[in-house]
Amino acid sequence: MAENRTWTVSSPPPPPPSSSSDSSSEWQILRFIPFQSSADEGFWRRLSSLKLDTLGLDQSPIPITGFYAPCSHPQVPNPLKLMAESLPDDPLQLVIGNRNKCPVPGTLYNTNTLESFHALDKDALLKMEAKKIFDDIISGKADEDCAVLSRFLLISFADLKKWTFRHWFAFPALSLEPPATLVNIQPASKAFSSEEAKSLSRACNEWRNSNMTAGVPFFFIVIASNAQVTIRPLKDWEAFHGDGEKLLFGFYDPCNLPSNPGWPLRNFLAFICLRWKIENIQFLCYRERRGLADLELSLVGEAVVLLPQDWRSPCCVLKL
After folding, report:
1. In 195-255, at which residue ranges do the beta strands (DSSP E only) sit?
2. How far apart are CA 51 and CA 72, in angstroms?
3. pLDDT tens, N- to C-terminus, the chain (320 residues)
4. Which intervals hold domain Ubiquitin-like modifier-activating enzyme Atg7 N-terminal (predicted)?
């Protein structure tokens, strides 16, 4: 039996689903729908074996991997999942190129007692994980390994005698002040010409079907004047010269709501603003249906994110 709680950091309460708006005379705070999470029985069995055979009483943090995929149903979001593969015997055994298992790094603190579980300084641990995200942005590591932008934290207590597991997920987020504002958001099908939409769908499907990019959840999209679409990894940004071309920043969106982006966009916006000093950002919330790009379900929006005055100091973005 597993008891689950999920925390998010610096998150305003999500609004109820509302109708999509193409434009608004008054900008509003951009609200992100928190990541959902789940851990299957295979994960707990693997953790139990690891504790009995290797960890013993050691409570040191353990690197783990969660998996998620873009939303694939208008009524159901895709959670971050933990399974047996999240704790591989050999890190090199991690699933690579599986379109339904986009890997996300995390940190696990497994305690020996329920008292230790409750006594952990959760705020301090969250700040530590958020600082890792900030450091990865500033250092350029996130350019090469963009999955670190969705880093997560898991705290657990495994009572092996009763086969009971208590756990909390946490998804740290960088807090930019003032908050990101939403200029507009609409179904992606309404944001492009018919030729652009066809080219975008084709490019997204190629990206998702390639073993090299299927598990890469953040990217940028270039739409040329002839409506041809190219999708590039973040590491190609320095070589990009986009005069006269449309530019969007895309991400795998686990959220299913018709007017709100999912949680991964939050740190992605912080990355774009902090790393590349871009403040007016057009984004694509990529979602799919039956394994193919779905521009009716996907969203295109525009956000304004102002660069903090002390942006090089983690203190300005690590507020809880």
Report:
1. 218-223, 229-232, 246-252
2. 35
3. 444 444 433 333 334 344 344 444 467 999 999 999 999 999 999 999 998 888 888 889 999 999 999 999 999 999 999 999 999 765 545 556 678 899 999 999 999 999 999 999 999 999 999 999 999 999 999 999 999 999 999 999 988 888 888 999 999 999 878 899 999 999 999 999 999 999 999 999 999 999 999 999 999 999 999 999 999 999 999 888 666 689 999 999 999 999 999 999 999 999 999 999 999 999 999 999 999 999 999 999 999 998 876 666 665 555 54
4. 30-302
Q: Which amino acid is at 192?
A: F
Q: Give 289's contacts (C-beta < 8 A, 6+ positions apart).
A: 72, 73, 74, 297
β-strand partners of 171: 8
* Side-chain-facing half-sphere of 260: CA atoms under 13 Å: 21
Q: What amino acid occupies position 260?
A: N
Domains of the chain: 2-18+34-171 (3.40.140.70), 181-314 (3.40.140.100)
